[in-house]
Amino acid sequence: MLGMYDMPALQPANDRFWTLIRKHLGFGPDYLTRDVDFWDIWKSPDLTFAQTCGMPYRIHLQSKVQLVGTPDYGLDGCPPGYYRSIFIARQGDPRDLSQLSTGTFAYNERLSQSGWAGPIIHLKALNLSPNATLETGGHAVSADAVAEGHADCAALDALTWELLKEHSDLGKSLREVEATVPTPALPYITSKNQDAHAITCAIRAAITELQPCDRDLLHLRGLIDIPATDYLSIPNPA
Asked: Which of 88, 123, 201, 227 has the highest CB neighbour number within 10 Å of its CB?
């Protein structure tokens, strides 16, 4: 499953990416899974390959899965294999983050590193806290909530923000306000029953063989080895 970054415009490229991984691995499902709950996939003892978020990994999954590598998306202001949250507000709204935080903060869910944990810790360091919150269920929905005036600001993971600018009109109606410090990006995982090293090698070979247009579409630059301790050291908000 590659559901973390699998908007319709990216699905054919993700399919081709998985086909290459499967070719080098020599086994696995014929197709990516798109119709099963994330948690059922992540916790399955039969999991071959998926992508999760850093916060679910450190809170619930660390003892149930193996890390197989972290994709490098070549994001501005981030070391290889890292990402960060981008606070966004409406174009034409001149308020800074301290002023925006007195309104409504839209977020995808409270087990999201980029949508909740990172931005809330960033605000706390500035002695700020949202006056009200709106749970939306997804980064793109949070962006829509801000664009439509249902929220004053939101925090999106940096890759999602780039993808929304490329594949929607939200980049025209929203602006960047501020960014959090970088943290390790969304890792690829497999179950405890799998050969994690073999999957890592298959992913690296697949990234190399991807057509340049697919690598550009997915923003894939490579695969980075980030130890579990780096994910587990990231603080959680209260």
From this structure: 88
Whether pLDDT at 111 is above 90: yes
**How many residues belong to the chain?**
238
Q: State the SS3 of 154-183.
A: EEEEHHHHHHHHHHCCHHHHEEEEEECCCE
Q: How far is CA 198 from CA 25, 49, 186, in A?
A: 7, 11, 20
Residue 82 pairs with which residues in a beta bridge? 184
Quote the pTM value.
0.95
Closest CA to 165 of 4, 7, 3: 7
Q: Is the pLDDT of residue 43 over 90?
A: yes
**Burial category of 127 from C-beta neighbours within 10 Å (exposed 0-12, middle 13-18, buried 19 and up):** exposed
Helix/strand/coil for 7? coil
Q: What is the mean pLDDT of residues 82-102?
A: 97
With 0-12 / 13-18 / 19 or more C-beta atoms within 10 angstroms meaning exposed / middle / buried, residue 92 is exposed
Structural domains in the chain plus CATH codes: 3-74+184-232 (3.40.190), 85-181 (3.40.190.10)
The 3-state DSSP class for residue 145 equals helix
